[in-house]
Amino acid sequence: MEKTVNHKAWFLVLPVLVLVAFSAVIPLMTVVNYAFQDTFGNNVFFWNGLGWFEDLLASDRMWNALGRQLAFSGIILAIEIPLGVFVALNMPKRGVWASVVLVLMSLPLLIPWNVVGTIWQIFGRVDIGLLGYTLNSMGISYNYTQNPVHAWATVVVMDVWHWTSLVALLAYAGLQSIPDAYYQAARIDQASRWKVFRYIELPKMMGVLMIAILLRFMDSFMIYTEPFVVTGGGPGNATTFLSIDLVKMALGQFDLGPAAAFSLMYFLVILLISWVFYTVMTNLDKRG
Amino acid sequence: MAKITLENLAHSYSPAPKGPEDYALKELNHDWQDGAAYALLGSSGCGKSTLLNIISGLLIPSQGRILFDGVDVTRAPTAERNIAQVFQFPVVYDTMTVRDNLAFPLRNRGRPEAYVAERVAEIAAMIGMEHMLDRKARGLTADAKQKISLGRGMVRKDVNALLFDEPLTVIDPHMKWELRTQLKKLHHDFGHTMIYVTHDQTEALTFADKVVVMYDGRVVQIGTPEELFDRPEHTFVGYFIGSPGMNLLPAKIDGAQALVPGGTTPLAGTYGAVQGNVQIGVRPEHVRLSAHEGLPVTIRRIEDVGRHRIIRADLMGHDLNIIAPEDMGVGADMTRAVFDPSRINVYADDWRVAAA
């Protein structure tokens, strides 16, 4: 069959092209422009080459933020993945309670980020917050606005509270797909509980767990709203993660050049890590 | 190895069964003799797998007891019963090598490594997988995986019984034959009590010393292949065993002859008054076409299956199958069918009635 040639079709694609151009391509190119140029006002730009990148890479500021960011992502993954799996293993497999538990588990996921931040910001306050007040009246000194360790603990616990459900739900889905015959065979083979987990449940969950790790890594690596609402990046710079630092640089100090260079590198790091994850995941599927 | 006794055993999947129709397995008393090979035969959903799972302890029956050599194990967990079971679909531990899969049941029981290695080598040779021992089980074909499952079931020497739940469903036909022969040989060599669930009569008849035929949650007959063929105790057995199955015709019994549609046919024995829904059953092998004697039939179709011909005929609106030798000419005058009197069974409400 011959293809009908009709150039009017382009008009139908045009709105999408315009939308994407204004929402993604033009802003991104603007960022690229800022990253390689400098200006002293009046919309006059000078070519700056890799100047901003060199400045940033030579300064401690970005490296510190990156270090905090990696530490944060590492900690929450180390807590949320095992905890999520543990929760999933203990969720009821069928019956009314299965549905009830599923709904309860999804609740934290439905709450907007800034509301989560606000909840924990108030919850942890020393004067009126249930957590902060209780801890202090029990004689445990706790103040996330002054003590960096307390601020970190608060932000980490908040993220665990918010996102462990996601890992648990994904792991639960993986567990539900295991046919009963596997468990029956394991009972006949006299496998211990640990061996059932190690040789049946974990291998069957591997796929969804990789997705969970990837999702949680990406999300936590880009985290902004919750720590911003709770600690505002403080005390000092203790909880200033990459995106908080970036916003400070771009909008607080209005250093658009360095901020643009910063965001490009930020973007590349995420792209790189995601690519590594993706490669590992697809190889995991093919292995055998 | 053990004798397995079932006492008043019944099972219902519903927590509060109201009548017999709620029971997946109706009340049953039976001894599985130590060291015999049994086949549990029946169509899908007749309760075979339920019975098997009760024996292996994966299911606790709603009523009755199971005894292994006289010891009550009704509520004992699977592990304590020391049983091996192979499932319909292959169950392998994907991340382990074939070797580790086969060794798994032995290692879990803390057997010495040297013994494990020796058993694994024997079993691998039996299932023909010696060359794959170091491969990961993931990514093997379905029949390779099922062979591993079979091997894992057979690797322990001291099991009380070996249970098979339609294990050859996913296996290639030629491999099926080979594995079944292997199982028989294994049974012959080691004398395990074996229970083999299947809906394939050839599989059941070739594998087992005794075939247990189940129908609608009930054991309808236990017998040797020969008994099932010659004297089916229930019309289901007659119909299920044989290819094609037994012909069943509504009848009235009058002493030593049966009134069937189209006329009468003599019986080998004399019967008293037979009540209920009365039928006679005769196997296609024992019906013969004739030009002069017997009941009037119309031949609808002749199927040539190589070693003999199956004649599909109609007797006053009832299907009648006849197996005729390959060399017999079927002329236009062959419009009558004769039943071999000594091979006719009489049924009342589906159960066989013996001659007086």
UniProtKB/TrEMBL annotation, chain A:
The keyword Transport applies. Pfam families: BPD_transp_1. GO terms for cellular component: plasma membrane. Keywords: Membrane, Transmembrane, Transmembrane helix, Transport. It comes from the Bacteria. InterPro entries: MetI-like (IPR000515), MetI-like_sf (IPR035906), Sugar_ABC_transporter (IPR052730). Gene3D superfamilies: MetI-like. The keyword Ribonucleoprotein does not apply. It is found in: Cell membrane. One of its GO terms (biological process) is transmembrane transport. It is a multi-pass membrane protein. Residues 66-277 form the ABC transmembrane type-1 domain. The chain crosses the membrane at residues 12-36, 70-89, 96-123, 151-175, 196-218, 259-280. Its main location: membrane. Belongs to the binding-protein-dependent transport system permease family. This is Sugar ABC transporter permease.
UniProtKB/TrEMBL annotation, chain B:
The keyword Heme does not apply. SMART domains: AAA. InterPro entries: AAA+_ATPase, ABC_transporter-like_ATP-bd, ABC_transpr_FbpC, ABC_transpr_MalK/UgpC-like, Mo/tungstate-bd_C_term_dom, NA-bd_OB-fold, OB_MalK-like, P-loop_NTPase. It comes from the Bacteria. CDD domains: ABC_Carb_Solutes_like. GO terms for molecular function: ABC-type ferric iron transporter activity; ATP binding; ATP hydrolysis activity. Keywords: ATP-binding, Cell membrane, Membrane, Nucleotide-binding, Transport. This is ABC transporter ATP-binding protein. Belongs to the ABC transporter superfamily. One of its GO terms (cellular component) is ATP-binding cassette (ABC) transporter complex, substrate-binding subunit-containing. Residues 4-241 form the ABC transporter domain. Signal peptide: none annotated. It comes from Paracoccus hibiscisoli.
